[in-house]
Amino acid sequence: MSTEAGKLIATALAIGLGAIGPGIGIGIIGSKAAEAIGRNPEAQGPIQTNMILAIAFAEAVAIYALVVSLIIKFV
Question: pLDDT band at residue 1, thresholds of 50, 70 and 90?
Answer without folding.
Answer: confident
